[in-house]
Specification:
- This protein has about 500 residues and is α+β, with helices and mostly antiparallel strands.
- It has eleven helices and twelve strands.
- The strands form three sheets. It has a five-stranded antiparallel β-sheet, with helices on both faces. Strands 7-9-10-12-11 form a five-stranded mixed β-sheet, covered by helices on one side.
- A hairpin with a 5-residue loop joins strand 11 and strand 12.
- The chain is rod-shaped and about 190 Å long.
- The two termini are about 75 Å apart.
Length: about 500
């Protein structure tokens, strides 16, 4: 509507300007007619425009009246010599331009139309005055020239008045159309959307046909049908998803059980190696007990000696009981529940178990547990299995050397530095450092792979480090190996402390 208003206003303005030009042409023609008639009545020659004294007065009065009636600002008549013989107008600022244009038209013999000045129109600035000049002809000869200045302000005032009426009409029309449009849009769009929204809020999984069709075959009816088809597909996909979730849950349970079996198998392998060492270790106490029992059967043994023999038998039996108890404690099945654990205490327990093992007989185990904090949340039995695996691996690496009489295993702890701790939380760093044969660079990247081992058959399953890696990762920690062939190995464990 605003665009139509603009086009209409500009079109009317153009018509009114053309009307003003036509009015100026008529005024110039009237001046020419009256002036030629007046000069002819005075019987002057063909090039003389000066009327007689009697007719001149009537000419001036008539010309002034004609100018006032037409609404022109000023009018001017020049003779063939470009001398002014008539001028009408008060406060005419364009007198010089009018005289110049009138002189120009006498010389060219053509009518001239120009505009001058500026003022505010309706939408932008427009020309203020219309200037027209034409030559005066008598019997085909140019005898002078005349020009007029027409103000255009009246056109713009009238257009602005009409524009105000149009704006009022546009506002009223806009208000009415808005009300009608809102009502129409509410009926065909808003209400159907509200119905769809309410149905969506009332949705239940067991709904077979949820979105009822709208009246007619419109877009909302098509949308309802599409939503029903979508819900059917979602329902079908949901059943498939539930089946998949149940399958994944079962697979996850089976995987956890398999992990437990792997951990259990590796633990039993470690227990087997410990048992072989313990069987050798308890052989000596059993032989001592047997010897003392033989002595007790003799009649020539004094009572005080019998008491001493009995005390020694009890000590050896207590030693055997301690060794077997430690093995049973290690081999006991874990309940898998995490609890608060002191890492240093676990390492002390592992050290006590290893003291009875023949594979550690030529190895000096040194503890350097200097970490300020060693309490973590973990399954102690699994963590004990990790430490035992690392200690047995170190012992095997040392025993593989030709001269293993100076074997050493250093178990140390400290708080991880900021450069090593990428998780920005307190971490306990444990190090198992041995002076064994070391690991080559090409094998170092494979040591945590399942069933990978460089030990002789019967001495390892290839699951020790893999299981250790899995246990440490489940605790939110990490494990890595630093080694060089022939220079020993350092296993580093990082565990989050509480």
């Amino acid at each position: 509507m605003i665009l139509i208003d603009f086009v209409m206003t500009m079109s009317v303005q153009k018509i009114l300007l053309e009307s003003e030009i036509s009015k100026g042409n008529l005024l110039l023609s009237a001046i020419e007619t009256h002036l030629i008639n007046s000069s002819e009545s005075s019987k002057n020659n063909i090039t003389n425009l000066t009327p007689s004294s009697d007719s001149g007065t009537n000419f001036n009065v008539h010309l002034t009246h004609l100018s006032d009636e037409s609404g022109c600002s000023c009018a001017m008549v020049l003779d063939i010599n470009k001398n002014q013989i008539y001028f009408h107008g008060t406060d005419c600022m364009l007198q010089d331009k009018l005289q110049a244009m009138t002189s120009e038209t006498i010389g060219s013999g053509k009518q001239i139309t120009e505009s001058s000045g500026t003022m505010w129109g309706v939408f932008r600035t427009q020309r203020r005055y219309l200037i027209q000049a034409k030559p005066l002809l008598r019997k085909g000869n140019i005898v002078g020239g005349t020009g007029v200045v027409l103000p255009l302000e009246g056109i713009y005032v009238a257009l602005r008045r009409v524009q105000q009426i149009l704006f009022i009409y546009i506002l009223i029309n806009t208000f009415v159309l808005t009300l009608m449009g809102v009502r129409r849009l509410s009926r065909i769009i808003v209400k159907p959307l509200h119905r769809l929204l309410k149905r969506a809020e009332d949705y239940r999984d067991d709904a077979d046909f949820f979105f009822t069709g709208e009246k007619g075959e419109n877009e909302f009816s098509q949308l309802s049908k599409a939503l029903n088809r979508m819900l059917k597909r979602i329902s079908a996909d949901k059943e498939k998803l539930q089946l998949t979730v149940r399958s994944l849950e079962k697979a996850n349970a089976d995987l956890k059980q398999a992990q437990k079996e792997i951990v259990r198998a590796e633990k039993l392998a470690s227990v087997g190696r410990l048992s072989s060492g313990i069987a050798h270790e308890i052989g000596n106490p059993i032989a001592i007990v047997t010897g003392y029992l033989e002595l007790l059967r003799r009649d020539d043994v004094a009572d005080d000696e019998k008491d001493e023999f009995i005390s020694r038998v009890e000590a050896e039996i207590s030693r055997i009981n301690t060794i077997i108890r430690q093995l049973l404690d290690f081999s006991r099945s874990s309940d898998g529940e995490p609890k608060t654990v002191s890492v240093h205490e676990l390492i002390d327990d592992i050290t006590n178990i290893l003291n009875f093992q023949p594979l550690m007989s030529d190895i000096d185990v040194e503890l350097s547990l200097s970490a300020e904090e060693d309490t973590i949340i973990a399954d102690p039995e699994r963590l004990r299995q990790v430490f035992l695996n690392l200690a047995i691996n170190a012992a095997d690496a040392i025993s593989s050397l030709k001269d293993c009489s100076e074997g050493k295993l250093i178990i140390s702890s400290e708080m991880a530095s900021e450069g090593e701790n990428t998780d920005h939380r307190p971490m306990l760093k444990l190090m198992f450092t041995d002076n064994g044969c070391g690991i080559s660079e090409e094998n170092l990247g494979n040591i945590f792979d399942p069933f990978y081992t460089t030990k002789d058959p019967g001495k390892g399953t290839g699951l020790g480090l893999s299981v250790s890696f899995m246990i440490i990762e489940s605790l939110g920690g990490k494990i890595r190996a630093v080694s060089e062939l022939g220079k020993g190995t350092r296993m580093e464990i990082y565990l989050p402390v509480i």
